[in-house]
Queue: 4 jobs
Job 1
Amino acid sequence: MTQHLAAPTSGTESVNPGERPEWWREAVIYQVYPRSFADGNGDGMGDLEGVRRRLPYLKALGVDAVWLSPFYASPQADAGYDVADYRAIDPMFGTLHDADAVIRDAHALGLRIIVDLVPNHCSDQHDWFQRALAEGPGSPLRERFHFRTGQGHAGELPPNDWESIFGGPAWTRTKNPDGTHGDWYLHLFAPEQPDFNWEHPAVQDEFRSILRFWLDMGTDGFRIDVAHGLVKAAGLPDMGHAGQLRLLGNQALPFFDQDGVHEIYRSWRKVLDEYAGDRIGVAEAWTPSAERTALYLRPDELHQAFNFHYLGTGWNAAALREAIDASLDAMRPVAAPSTWVLSNHDVVRHATRFADESAEQGLRRARAAALLMLALPGSAYVYQGEELGLPEVTDLPDEVRQDPSFFKENGQDGLRDGCRVPLPWSGTEAPYGFGPAAGGPSWLPQPASWAELSVEAQTGDPDSTLELYRSALALRREHPALGAGDAVEWLDAPEGVLAFRRTARVDGGAAWHGDFLCTVNTTSEPVRLPAPGRPLLASVPLAAPGDETELPADSAVWWAT
Ligand code: GLC
C-alpha cells in the first residue's frame, strides 16, 4: 500500500494577493535561495528568470508565498547578505525588470513574494561606507557606522572584545586616506559587512525609504535579516570573555536583542500598514527565549519570527512537544502565529541532521517531521529542496566552497555551502535541469545520486518525498483549519509517540467535518495503538488499520475522525 491513503477531493484555488485577510497566519512560505534554485541563462548561477520560470512548480506544490534570499547588488562576500545597493539587482541575478516579472507572475498565480531585507549591515562597497573611508576621520558619513579609535598605545588593539559571528574580532582597522593606520569599524559578521549605526536618523530614514521602494514594487513583505542586531548596548561595553559564539541565542549579549530594536519595528509597521493587502515583516531574531522573541511580534511590531528553538530540537517526542508548547504559549499573549521551520540556507539540512544511523533513517524522519510541522497551528517554512528530501552535501571539496565562515577559525560551523547546492530538476546528467544545458555549469557541484532525487524523477511516484509534500500541502489547502488557531490538544500516547487533535475551524473556510489527528512515532520500533480514525496521509507505507493500528518506526500519520 502506498503512503497516499486518501486523495484530496478538491484542487487548489487561485487566490489573489490581499484577498485573504491575515493570509500569513497559517501560510506555508517557501524559501528560494536564488543562486541555487534555477539558472535561467546557463552561467551556472541561479537567477530571477530561473525563479520566474519555476513559479508554476511552486504553485502546484501548494505553497502560499515565496521568500527570496537576497538578490541585490552585492560583491557576494556573504552570498548577497552584503548589500551594496538596496534598490538594485545584482547583474548575476538579473535586472529590476526581472524582479518585477517575478512579482507580477507570482501574483497572477496567487503566490505572494517576500524579499530579504538586510538592515544590520551593508557591504563595504556600499556608497556610504566607501565615502566614509575616503573622507577619512571626521567624515559625517562615519557616524552612520560604528567607527572607533583603537585601544593600546597607538590604537593597534580593537575598541572592544566583541567577536564576529564568522570568527575573529568584530572590528577591522582602516587605513586613512594618507595611508597611515586609522580607526576601526564594527562588523558583527564578515569584515566586508560593516554594521550600520541605527541611532543615526539618516539610517532610519534610508531603510523606511527602502521598505517603500519594495512595497511599491508590489512585494508582500520582508524577511528581516539579523533583526535582533540593529541596536547595540550604549558605550559598546566589553563582554569580558571569549567564546561569545556559544552564547548566541541563549544569553543576553550587548550586541543582540537590545530593547531599542522595538522602536525601529514600530516605525516599520506603520509603513507596512500604509499599504493594502497585509504586507508582513518576518524577524530573523536570535533571542535567549521564546518570550523575548514574542516581543518582536507585539501587535504594533512585526508579524512572525522564525522559530529557531524548534529548528534546533532533535528527533525526540518529549523535546518536540516541549518546543511546540513553549512556542504556542509564548506567542499567545501577543496573538502572533507560531512558525515552524526545519531547514534554511544557514543550517545542515534536516534529512542529514536527523540521521543518527543512516541516510535512510534521516530521510524517514525528515518525511515524518514534515507531516508534523504541517499539522501544527501557525505558519510553516519550507527550504528549497526539502520537498525533494535532499540531504546535506558533506563532501564538497574545499576549493569550491564560498561560505565566508568556512575560511575563519572558530567561526560559525563553516558548513553552510552543503545546504546550498543547486537543486536537481530533471534529467540524468548534472546540472540536472538546474541550468538550461545538460553538462552545463553549476556554481557548486551536485552529487551524482541527485539524478534520482530530481523533481522529474519524483513526480508521479507515490512513494516519493515530493509527492508526500504535494499531498500534505493539498490537504492543508483543502482544510485551512489545519494551520489555524493557537493550540494543539495533546492526547495520551506511549513514550516516544506524539498524538494530537486539531479542532480549529476557520470562519467562512472550507467545511471540515470531524476532527483531525496527527500521530508521530519518533522511536525506532513500531508502536501499536487503537486506530484513531481513517488515515489521510502517512510518511511511510501503512498497513490498513483495523481496530488497532501499527505506527511504523520514525513515522507520522494524519487521521480524520
Ligand atoms: C543571517 C543570514 C546569513 C547571513 C547573516 C549575515 O543570519 O541568514 O546567511 O550570513 O545573516 O547577514
Job 2
Amino acid sequence: MEEKKKVLYSAVQPTNNLTIGNYVGAIRNWVQLQSEYDCYYAIANMHAITVKQEPALLRQRTLELLALYIACGVDPEQCVLYVQSQVPCHAELAWVLNTITYVGEMERMTQFKDKSARHAENINMGLMDYPVLMAADILLYQADVVPVGLDQRQHLEITRDIAVRFNNRYSPTFTVPEGIYRKVGAKICDLQDPTKKMSKSGEDPNGAIFMGDDKDTILRKCKRAVTDSETEVRYDPDTKPGVSNLLSIYSVMTGKTMDESVREFAGKGYGDFKLAVGEAVADVLIPIQQEQKRLLADKAYLNGVLNRGAEAAFRTARKTLSKVYRKVGFYQGDK
Ligand code: TYM
C-alpha cells in the first residue's frame, strides 16, 4: 500500500502586488515540496480584508494570484488550490479557537503592533484576530508542515500553542504543525533599507521588486539598491546587510549555493554584481509573467481549478470541524 503523505498547508493574501519576497519565502518552496506532501495552498482573502481593500480589485487579485501560483509551477493536479472564503469552516473554526485564545496574546503579536501603527484609523477586531484565523486555516487540514517566511514564525508559534491548548483541554484533536523556513531567502529585505523585510506595502516602491515588474524596472531597482562603502561582495548579514540580501536573492534565483555565488563575484565590483542580480531576477520573473498572462485569458480553466479546490478543501476541513464541534459539546442533531 502506498504510504500516506504528510500534509502541508500554506497561503498568501491577495493584497497589493506580490514581491519577490513572497515568491522566495513562500511560493517557490511550495513548488519544491509539492510532490513530497499532500499540499493545500490557499488564497487568504479573509485575512486580506483586515486592512481596507477595494472590493473589485480584491476579486481580480484573487484570480491573478491563482494564475501566479500555477505560473510559478504549483501543479493544480497535485495540490489543492482554493480560496479561503469559499470554505466556510475557516471562519467557524476560528470562532471556536477564539474562545481559547487570550486578548493579551494577540496584543503582543509583532505584526498586529506594526499594522496597528500603520493603519491607526482602522485597528479592527479582524486585524487582532488575524493569527487565530491563520491557526484555523492550518489546523483544519491537520497540517504537519507550514512553509512560510520568517515574518510568520510568531503566528506559527501561536498556532502551535492553540493546538496544544485545545488538545489538552478537550482531547487530542489537532496535529501540532512545524514551520519550514529556508536557510537562504526566509527573509528577503528591502532594497532601500536592508534592515527591514521587503514588503508589498513598503513606503519606498524602489525597495521592493514586484512579481509584475518589467525587466527595465527590475534592473533599475537592483542598480539603485543600497549596499555599503566597501567594494567586496561577501556574505555577512550583520555588517553587510545590503550586499548579503542581494546575494541571497541571486543565490535563490539562480539555484546556486551561497558559496558558489560569492565565488562568482570575487574581484568584481558592485556595479557588475547588481547587474547580474537584476538579470537573474528578470530571467525568473519574465517567463512567470508570460505564463500568468496566458492563464488569465482562460477564466473557465481557473474557475474550474478553484471549484475543484474548494470542494476538496471542504471535504477535509469539514471532518476536522465536526470533530471539534463534538469535542466542545455543540449539538449536531442525530448525525
Ligand atoms: P502574506 O501574503 O503577507 O505573505 C505570504 C508569504 O510570503 C512570505 N514573505 C516573505 N518571505 C521572505 N521574505 C520576505 N520579505 C517576505 N514577505 C512575505 C510570508 O512569510 C508568507 O509565507 N499570514 C500569511 C498568509 C496566511 C497563511 C495561512 C500562511 C494565511 N493563512 C496559513 C500559512 C498558513 C501571510 O503572511 O501572507
Job 3
Amino acid sequence: MTTPTPLVAGNWKMNGLSSSLAELEALETFVKEQAEASCELLICPPFTLVAAMAVKAGGSVKIGAQDCHFNKSGAHTGDISAEMLKDIGAEYIIVGHSERRADHEETSDTVNAKAAAIHGEGLSAIVCVGETEEERDAGQTETVVLGQLLVSVPDSATPTNTVIAYEPVWAIGTGKTPTVADVAEIHTAIRGALVERFGEAGKEFRILYGGSVKPSNADELMAADNVNGALVGGASLKASDFNGIIDAYRS
Ligand code: PGA
C-alpha cells in the first residue's frame, strides 16, 4: 500500500473575475519561492475562469471545476459536462458540495451519476459528504455521512479517480470547526467504510477535511488521523491565506 499524497484544494465558489487570475500567479510564486510542500495543489474557480486558469497555470497548481452535469451533452440549458471541462483543462471536478445539495436539491444518486460521468472522462471526482448541525445534535453524524458516502461514490471509484471530502455543513463559512478528535473519528469511520467496500484500495483514497480551514488551524486539522488534505473555501481566495494553509505540508 502506498500512502496517498495529500491534496490541498481551493473551492472558489461563486467568486472571482478575470482580475483574480493574479491570485493564481501569486500562489505559484509562493510555491516556487518557498520550501517544497509534500502535497498536490488544486484550485477550482467558477466555470468562467477554468479555461483561462488552466492556460495560465504553470504546473505547480492543477485546475478543477465545482460541478458538472451527468450527461455528456444534450438539451440541458445552462449546464456544463465533464467532457467540456476536460476539454478546457480541468483535471478534477467537485460534486455533491452541500451548497449544491441544498440550493439545487441534489441527491446522492445524482452525485453518483455525476462522479461516474467524471470517471468516464478520465478525470477525478471530489465527492463531498457532511452532516447538518441538526443531524449532528441528534447524534446522526456517522449515519448521515456514511449513508451519503455509500450512495454518492460510484462503483467506478478508485483511489486515483476519486477523493472524498468530509465537510460538516455547520462548519462551512462559519469559522466553527469540529475538534480534532471529532475529525479523526469521522475520517476513520469513512476510511473503514471505504475499506469495507473497496478492500485494500480503500486505504489509499484521499479523505479531505473541509469547513473553515485557515492558516491558524490547518496544522492541527491536517495532522488528524486519516486526514489527507483540505478542501478550502473562503481562505483559498487570497493566495497568501491559501499559502498559509499549504504550510501544514512544508517542513
Ligand atoms: P470554507 O468552505 O472554507 O469557506 O468554510 C469550505 C467549502 O465549502 O468547501
Job 4
Amino acid sequence: MTEIPNQELLPMTAAANAAGRLTVGGCDVVSLAETYGTPLYIYDEYTIRAMCRAFVGSFESEYPDSHVSYSSKAFASPALAKILDEEGVGMDVVTGGELAIARAADFPAAEINFHGNNKSRAELEEALDYGIELVTVDSMYEIDLLDDVARKKGVTQQVLLRVSPSIDGHTHLLTSTGVLDQKFGFPIETGQAEEAVKHALDKSNLDVAGIHFHLGSPIFELEPYTQAIPYVLEFVAEMRKHGLEQRIFSPGGGFAIGYVSDTPPPEISEYAAAISASVREACDSFGLDEPRLILEPGRAIVGRAGVAVYSVGGTKDIPGVRKYVSVDGGMGDNIRPALYGAGYSVVKANGPAEPVAGNVTIAGKYCESGDLLAKDAPLPPLETGDVVAIAASGAYCLSMASNYNMSLRPAVVLVNDGEARLIRRRETYDDLLSSSIL
Ligand code: LLP
C-alpha cells in the first residue's frame, strides 16, 4: 500500500488508491468532494467504533465497574448517537440542544448525563421529563433549582457535584478547568465544595451519588489525573462525616489526540491504567468502597475519525515571506486555529503521496487575516482546483461552527466499507434566512 504522510493522524482506514488519491472508509475523498461539494466533513465509522472499543475495552480491563460517556459537545449528531449506543457508550449533554440530538436518536435516557455550569429551568425540566440518569450540578443556585424542578415533577434526581481540584492540566488557558480561577465547579480548596455537599445532601429531591471533576482539554499528560484523583477522593472520604455515600466517581474527559506528528498523545490504555490504579489506590488508602467510574471522552472518540475537505481557490506568494493558499472554508467551520492557535496537518487529497515541495499556509475565506487553518504546512505543489484534507478535524470544529460572513455550514458524510451516507446536508440560503424577519 502507498504510504501517505501523517497516516497516524488520519482516520484508521485512510489510504491512497490506484488513482493516487486519498481514500477514507474505502471512499475516494476527491469523488466525495465532487458529489457533496466542499467544504465537506467526512467521518470514518470504523475509527469511531474503534475508539469507542478502545475506551470501553481499556477501562473495563483495568476497572470493570467503569462506564464511558461520550461528551457530545465534541460533535453532536443523531447518526453518531446511534453508533455510540450500539457500542455501549453513553452520552453527556450540556444544553437542551444536545439533549434534543440524543432524543432524536432515541438515545436511552439511562445513559445520559447533563453537564454545564448554568442550565436553565427549561433545560432541566426537559431532561427530567426524558428521565435522564444523571445531572452534574455546578452551583448552589442549580442545587436549589434542580431540587425544585424534581419536587414539582415528583421525582428524586440522581446527581453528581462538580468540584474544582486546583490542579493544572497544562493545556490552553481557555480550556483549562481544573485550576482555582475558572468558572466551573465548587472549589475544594476554599471550602465551597464542602458547603455544596452539605447543601445538596439536605435536598429531599436530590440523590447525591458522587463527585465529578474535569481538568481541561486536551490533557497530554497522565500526572494531572493521578494528582487530582487522590486529592478529590480524600475529599470524598472526608465528606462521609456529612453523610455522603459515594457510588459514582467521574474524573471527566480531556483525553488528547494527535494533531501534528511531533506531539503524540498517550495511548488510551495508558490513561486507563493510570486512572484506574489511581482510583483503586486512593480508595484503599482512604477506606472507600470502589465506586462506579465514569469517563467522558469527547475529542478522543471523534477527533481522528473526521477529516475536513476543502477546494483550493486563489493563491498568494509573497516572495521571501510566505505562500498562502486559500480554500473555500475556514474559521466558520473550524475556529480552533484562530481561537487557540491550534495546529493541524494537511494532506493533498488528489495526491497524498506526492513529494513535499515546500511550506504553504492554508488560508480560509473569511474576512479576517487570522483566518488560517494551517500555518506553514509542508505540502506538495497546490493549484486552484486541488482538494486538501485536514486531519483530526472530527472534534470541536463543526460543533463550534458559525455562520460568520453569512456562510453556509458544511455537509457531513459518514463513510464505511466503500459506502458514503450524508448525515447532515449543507445549509442553504433559505436556512440562513429562515429565522430573519423583514
Ligand atoms: N467532560 C466535561 C465536563 C467537559 O467539560 C469536557 C470538555 C469533556 C468531558 C470532554 O473533553 P474532551 O475529552 O473532548 O477533551 N473547544 C475546545 C475543547 C473544549 C472542551 C470543553 N469540555 C477545543 O476545541 O479544544
